Amino acid sequence: MATRVFSDEELEGLRSFPAIGKDDLIRYFTLTSADQAFLGKFRRAQNVLGAAVQLSTLPWLGFVPDDVPSAPTAAVGRLARQLRVAVADLAGYGEREQTRTDHLREIAEYLSWKPAKAIEFKELDEFLLARAMEHDSPSLLFRLGCEYLRSAKVIRPGVVSLLEKVATARQAAEEETHGRVAHLLTGEQVRGLDGLLVVEPTLGSTRLHWMVTGPVQGSPTSVKGEVEKLTFLRGLGADVLDLSALPAERRRYLAQIGRRLTAQALVRREPNRRHPILLTLLAQSAVDVLDSVVQLFDQTLSGSESRAKIKLREVLAERAKLSEDRLALLDEILPVLADTGIPDEEVGTLLRGKIGMSRLRAAHAGATVRLPRDHGHLALLDGSYTYIRQFAPKVLETVRFKGGTEAKPLIEALGILRELNATGARNVPEDAPTLFVPTRWQGYLDEAAAKGDVTAYRHYWELCTLLALRDGLRSGDVYVPGSRRYDNPAAYLFKPAQWETHRAEFCRLVGKSPDFSEALPLVMDELDEALTDLEGVLKRGDGPVRLNGTGELVISPLTAEDIPSEAEELHGELEKMLPNVPIASLLVEMDRHTGFLDCFTHAGGKQARSPQLKRNLIACLIGLSTNLGLHGMAASCGIPYDVLAWTAEWYIREETLREANIVLVNYHHRLPMTTMFGSGTLSSSDGQRFPTRGKSITARHLNKYFVSEGISTYTHVSDQHSTFGTKVIVATHREAHYVLDEILGNATDLPISEHATDTHGVTLVNFGLFDLVGKQLSPRIRDLGKITLYRMGAKTDYEERFPTAGPLLTKKANLDLVADHWDDLLRLAGSLKYGHATASLIVGKLSASSRQNALAAALKEYGAIRRTIYAAKYLSDESYRRKIARQLNKGESLHALRRQLHYAREGKVARRQPEQQNEQAWCLTVVTNSVVCWHTEYMGLAVDELRTAGREVDSEVLAHISPARSSVVNYYGSITVDYERELAQLDDRGHRPLRTVDTDDPEAGL
């Protein structure tokens, strides 16, 4: 049983001493005076030192390996120095097993530890069962069991014994899972679940496959298809299934298994294992499909609106052309009318004679109707009314919408529209609400009502209602009960009672006072300090930041950074020293150093790993990151496609890719060379566009970047050139919504405290939230001199204290509004900080909120203050501006590396589902970080070799060298993945030999 979980090598490692870090060495191998007194009873130096090793090892590992003399040399040496004995005295200790076990028994009694007996095993079984209900991975359960035993001061039993306990717990968890949902498995429900696995002739597939396959475009057909799914799921009672008896992690795990297993594989499973999987998948699908219906409604309606806007631009352009003759005629008429020397009675005769009656009549005949306030946008959208009617009634019939007091008129209008659709009535009731109709569109309704045109009134009123519904869903003013993405915004935040228990800890964590009267003076001091610096810069009047003659702010672009010429020369020299390496070999080497491939675990909890698994994983990573695809990779490397497809399906998923990436980023962070690039406290984020092949729900037209359609990958990059976050987003969506996600979700060792973006990542909401969660947003803002700057007091006071900078602060912040909602702002930030809510979801809703949303208004007001403080600091410090620009350039260099890697099929992403696209983007990130890690490590080795040879290498010069630029890694051509052969080429430290080449050789490094 043990060998099915761990390999023989891993089993041996679990029974032996691991390597020890500095912290553990100090913590566990430091003897107290009481310890030394206890050890004195063992007399002989060998026994004293051997007992000391056991005494220190037991709390460290939770057990003591049989081969005590094999303990880490540093640990033995530390103990020997404290005991004033020789390290060599440990040799031969424990050869007589009875001596070692007797010593261990005495040591356990001294430390209050105990061996595992019946009671301890019973408590361990209960603990493992509770954990197995949350996690099914045997290796994870084994580790958790070890941690539990250590915390309970119970000596860990043998590895095989503990693994048997894990296996028993996993089996018990399956039985417990079935027992907790058995009451839901009525005869009718079981028939419905098993029916999901039967091929439907009308669908050409099973209901299961149909249910979990998402749409690939926003269209009436897609909306109606998702509505049909939602109706089907509700018919099975999926929307009311109460699975709260199962832990959330168990539900997620079972649903994931259900999505990945084929119908045939599920049929082969026993009913007590199959039915809980299908139940959880059914419940999750009900939520997913509900969200999909609302999302498609938004996307399809917005598509019609966008097409109307495009047509409007064309109409206005044509109108402008037709108006040119009339404007030219006006240029001839105005001088005559403005000439007071021409008598009024002669003006008409003069104009008719000068211009000619035919031209005047033609201009009169070409008169255009005065445009409405929206220039005719709604009228053009009315041209898509029939198209919109193909899906909107279905959505209103299927989805129930709710809202707060402000949304009451809209909710009432939706009810009326739903009734009109159900009865087939055409006329909108006279008392139908219109308070939600924007002013720019109200004229359409008034005109239609005045003319008695009930058809036009119905069209315009219905369109206004649907667009208001879409906007309300985006802002959260309207919500969908039971949805994950469109639920009541209050559901995403800490409840007041929860916040009471978290407030003090959160405020201490981010350095904010829960009392605004205490927090306010600190913010005012920050603003005053920043303005003092800016005042000094502006008073000089001759720098890149200055005021012009009219008092307007002038910001000159930064001059090109003065990069030492030695940097480029050194980079070239280092490149010639690095070994040439194919991408597959590079990944094998990085796994040798980091073990990142071990993070790819089986989605079903299966632990046995075939000898070829790492080879297959590398092939999948290369195939997806280079865009060759699994078919292309199979043809290139000779591994059968079905093997790669199975490996990708069960091992390559976002959670395993994230874990692998964390391992790589942390390894890179620890490399000596990495500190030359940055401290790891600064990061940046930016979107990179990739074209797509075929339809996808995430793809959009964007003429600036794509011939057809494409997506955007939004990546977060540290100042050390590592990428710690990746997310596929719609290319036309506001990037600012996604800036905070990876900052708050950063699980790497990078101590990120400051984040840079370009203008696309900037909103007042982000400025406010970044400060409230204890981070600094440092963007490069286009047209910074034109933004509105806020003051926190009277205009006269600021202009008196800051005569030059004060007049730039043209608006006074509403501090009362911020004060009234200070606790709510902290609760919002706390909900994000502790992972209770997703930042992109909340930021998107707050950014789209109306002025009536007091919390959003207060956050934007606070964000405006933070933006003013930042702007003053940014403008007054050129070195700070350069630091931000330099960081954003690092992101661009990594974009170039990703583009170089993602070369196949013209870089067009062929995967159509968002989940698949996200997995491919993460594969690209993992391989990119592997290249950066490898390049950084070898540059460090090359620098060490130069310094050993007596060469001076300036650290300041090294800071200008990017590990994202490498000519020695080969991404192209036929790819061979032979894991063991590649390992055999490495030395004892896991490295390839550096090249010794003539630096003048023009072929070197090629």
Explained architecture:
With 1006 residues, the chain is mainly alpha-helical. It has 42 helices and 18 strands.
Outline the secondary-structure elements.
Layout: H1 8-15, H2 22-28, H3 33-39, H4 45-61, H5 73-83, H6 97-111, E1 114-115, H7 118-132, H8 138-151, E2 154-155, H9 159-181, H10 187-195, E3 199-200, E4 205-206, H11 207-212, H12 220-235, H13 248-260, H14 263-268, H15 271-338, H16 344-355, H17 357-365, H18 377-381, H19 385-389, H20 392-398, E5 402-403, H21 408-423, H22 439-451, H23 454-475, E6 478-479, H24 496-510, H25 516-540, E7 545-547, E8 553-555, H26 565-577, E9 581-582, H27 583-594, H28 613-625, H29 629-637, H30 641-651, H31 654-670, E10 682-691, E11 700-701, E12 709-718, E13 723-729, H32 739-744, E14 754-756, H33 764-772, E15 776-777, E16 790-791, H34 795-801, E17 811-812, H35 815-820, H36 822-833, H37 839-848, H38 854-876, H39 878-901, H40 914-948, H41 955-958, E18 969-970, H42 979-984
Parallel strand pairs: 1-2, 9-18, 10-14, 14-15, 16-17
Antiparallel strand pairs: 3-4, 5-6, 7-8, 10-12, 11-12, 12-13
Helix pairs in contact: 4-5, 4-6, 7-8, 7-9, 8-9, 9-15, 12-15, 12-20, 13-15, 15-16, 21-23, 22-23, 23-37, 24-36, 25-38, 27-40, 28-29, 28-30, 28-40, 31-40, 33-38
Structural features:
single chain, 1006 residues, mainly alpha, 6-stranded mixed β-sheet, globular
